[in-house]
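Step 1: inspect the first sequence and its tokens.
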Amino acid sequence: MTDLLLEILQYYGLREIVGKQHNSEIVKMFAEVGYDQIKDDETAWCSALLNYYCMKLGYERSGKLTARSWLNVGEVIEEPEMGDIVIFWRNNPNSWEGHVAIYISEDKDLKIVYSLGGNQGNMLSVKPYHKSRVLGYRRLKII
């Protein structure tokens, strides 16, 4: 799955536009994955980004905009490798809210997971998350 990671890395720094304008690349991702009614870049787009690039490269995908939908895709794995999918909880471990990104690495001493994802600080970036927020890891297959 490093091809997925490398493809997404090409767009590192893709960001939302503050104000009434919207980043056309982010809006395009929504449309390409079947959500053409979304015309803004303020709608959470972490799952749209992964769905878009998984579709583009032929990987299985969730087809949904909710981050936790990725818990139902791919092979469940315990020891992730760079390029696997990581799903985090957001606001509350038992809520529907979450975040999905690509696993990069972790600092076992600090209990930090580094991930590459969309909508991380309103942009495509690498960000650290505390490992306690991980709901699961998935390895995707080409379909």
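Step 2: inspect the second sequence and its tokens, then contrast the two.
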Amino acid sequence: MLLHSEDKTEREKVYRKILEAYQGNILCLNKQGHIEFVNRQGAATVGRTIEKVVEENLTIDEIEAKNILINSAAGRALRTGEKTMAYITGSIRENVTSFGVPVFNDNGEMEYAVSYSLEEGFFKEMAMILQKSIEEKYHAEQLVSHFSNQAKENQVVAESARIKEILEMFRNISSFKSTVLLLGESGVGKEVYARYIFDYSQINKSTYLTVNCAAIPENLVESELFGYEGGAFTGAKKQGHMGLFEMADKGTLFLDEIGDMPLQIQSKLLRVLETGEVTRISGRTPKKVDVRIITATNKDLEQMVREKKFREDLYYRINVFNVRIPPIRERTEDIRPLIHFFLDRYNKKYGLHRFFSECTMELFEAYDWPGNVREIRNIVERSVISSRGNKMTLDDLDFKKTLNGKNEDHSPVTPNKSDNIVTRAFNAPLKEAMKDFEKQYIERVYRDCGLNVTLTAQKLGVHKTGLYKKLKEYELV
């Protein structure tokens, strides 16, 4: 089934039909760079027929020299022996994105290089289909994120016993459609845990949508969640608008920051949860929806209920399973794994090989991380980008200023210019010499630990309270 020969068997005819049915361009080169096969669409892309391609008998080098194809993926795969992806231009009717693959024989020798290409129009058409199906770019991004491979991005890093217990609980409840309320400080990663529940559920091949109730303007929350009929209000689309509940039908809807949902919307949300029906703004006919709800907040909903800022009936409806995600300061075992996780992510993203010194890692472990996982992620990314070398130390970072600002209430120690610990003259009494040595030794370790009392106490093997007394005694705080 070569370019220059007729198909001799029925099997060859079938194979050619299959290749010609591909909605894109196929190009196969032999190891000398000559075209072994091209489908008719591929030939048409460069303004030729199959017969014309056979007549010209050009190599890929000649094709590129004539600017017929520029940046051929098949040519690159042939030269490098590796899979490749290329954006191809040249004397073609439309630019294409191409994937080149080398083909080896049983002896490991390259025999062919094949490329599969799709024209820009294909991607534009797909984008239009997505845009049309959900009507707005916001919803398109939601669906695209659902079909994207987010496993690595949403991975839960768990070394602490508490987080492992939480994950086991999530796996146990994931198959049930009961509502789940995730509580925790800002930055603990509540959205990641919501996605974890979905990924383990029986509906993990359906739609997963996220809405931040605090990020949507109050006058748009209702239309975003429940949709509206055409002409419902000034500026409304004539064809109406599908809300997130309808779009998440048979799937999962994650309502983040639900504590910021306006009171007037809470009553309508409660009705949807109670009846399983959603009615668009200005609509008359309710529509049945089957949506699993996961909610999250960093606010005290019980206090808000007492203050009449959150509906009590809605609170009990979303509080079937109540899970508190502990902050980083309560699960210090996760600090080092999280740092390594984000280091790996940003090293790969930026093509670098950064790592933290052990002293810096110990300092990180002693820090309370008020911004939780979000703060760890930001510190790691900033460090990877701004560091002057692969080994990142405290001196390379502005984290030291952050640490000192959030540490115990004390003034900085005046640095000792000498790295050597110097005692009094040898004729000094032993008790005074030992006290002088203790002061200098504590000061040296205290400085090396970035003025962090907790880490200094760990280094010295003493209790933090006792160390703090010593620091006051030696006027180091």
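Step 3: confirm your contrast with the notes below.
Residues 430-448 form the longest helix (19 residues). The first strand starts at residue 25 and ends at 30.
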